[in-house]
Specification:
Elements: H1 7-10, E1 21-22, E2 31-35, E3 39-43, H2 85-106, H3 115-128, E4 132-133, E5 146-149, E6 152-154, E7 168-177, E8 180-189, H4 195-213, H5 222-234, E9 238-239, E10 245-247, E11 254-258, E12 275-278, E13 281-283, E14 289-291, E15 298-300, E16 306-308, E17 311-315, E18 320-322
Length: 325
């Protein structure tokens, strides 16, 4: 999960262009969108969102679980944390569990299932394993997973819309297990997705790995965005520059900020023991986005589709290790 807010709030920076702008409040029906450039799919608007799901008292809670305000996140002008061996092992466990939940959720992505159904499944699976769903009440987010469909490129809030044949859905799972967060995401095809949509998902995953392959001790953080954007451009796709990766540990979001485009680069170089996410959003259009009236749902201005893949990685002495496997 990555949060597009201000630098002071959680380090989501907007460089070279404005941050996602609020859309004039509106609520529309889901209608078929057809364009020669983008394909055939439903343009998604806001649906009805159910109440947050309860968390048992025995589950260990992150700092924001009751108030909505994270109080343990380091300032983004501080150097990225270098995790010790014990912390790294705990992060491995939380990241491995996050990937297990994501893989388990994949089988639920069938025509007719609502994203609220998926939220219930993810929530219950995490709670049953004595963990906490990290998105729940993080800055008052109402749900336990992010589900972004078609033109919704990030922070989609699970609701009552049934998935339909041809949907692209990005599922972003984050867990808080034994005091440490783990974070990962993937984009899936529901039923028969058209060729442009399948291409988008394929290239988006490849972009994520291009960014990861640019990581290693002594390498510049700016190398990540350069590798991602150059690859996306080769396939006539765009990076959404306002969605960034982040450091992670006992806190959900912290330094470094991982830019996925060449508009800007986080200063400094990577060091062994640093842990952060690489999670570019790749879209068919020009990358301009806006926020719907719920304050969370980020959509493309031109209604083009987006796709996102995310891994949490550790910088090692010889290169990198993907923790969310």
């Amino acid at each position: 999960m990555n949060v597009c807010r201000t630098v002071a709030a959680c380090g989501r920076w907007f460089v070279g262009r404005a941050p996602p702008r609020p859309r004039v409040p509106t609520r529309c029906l889901w209608t078929k969108f057809r364009a020669n450039d983008f394909g055939v799919y439903e343009v998604v608007c806001l649906g009805n969102v159910s109440d947050p799901r309860p968390v048992p008292e025995y589950v260990t809670l992150p700092s924001y679980a009751k108030t909505g305000k994270p109080v343990d996140e380091p300032d983004h002008d501080r150097p990225p944390e270098v995790q010790n061996a014990g912390q790294i092992e705990m992060l491995r466990q939380s990241c491995k569990f996050a990937k297990f939940v994501l893989d388990s959720a994949k089988d639920r992505l069938t025509v007719g299932t609502t994203t609220d159904d998926l939220d219930r499944f993810v929530h219950d699976l995490i709670i049953d394993n004595n963990a906490y769903p990290s998105p729940l009440n993080y800055r008052w987010f109402k749900k336990s997973v992010c589900t972004s469909v078609n033109n919704v490129v990030c922070h989609g809030v699970p609701d009552d819309r049934p998935l339909v044949d041809g949907d692209l859905i990005s599922v972003d799972v984050s867990v808080y297990l034994n005091g440490f967060h783990g974070d990962c995401a993937a984009t899936y095809c529901v039923g028969d997705v058209d060729e442009p949509g399948r291409k988008l998902a394929k290239v988006a995953e490849e972009c994520t790995y291009k960014g990861i392959e640019a990581c290693g001790p002594g390498k510049s953080f700016a190398d990540i965005g350069r590798a991602i954007e150059l690859y996306a451009r080769q396939h006539d796709l765009s990076v959404v520059p306002s969605i960034t990766g982040h450091g992670i540990g006992t806190y959900f979001h912290g330094p470094p900020t991982i830019f996925h485009s060449m508009l800007h680069g986080y200063p400094g170089v990577m060091k062994p023991g640093m842990v952060f996410t690489v999670e570019p959003v790749i879209c068919q259009g020009d990358g301009d986005v806006e926020i719907l009236e719920d304050g969370w749902t980020i959509v493309t201005v031109d209604d083009s589709r987006g796709a996102q893949f995310e891994h949490t990685i550790l910088i090692t002495n010889r290169g990198y290790e993907i923790l969310t496997v």
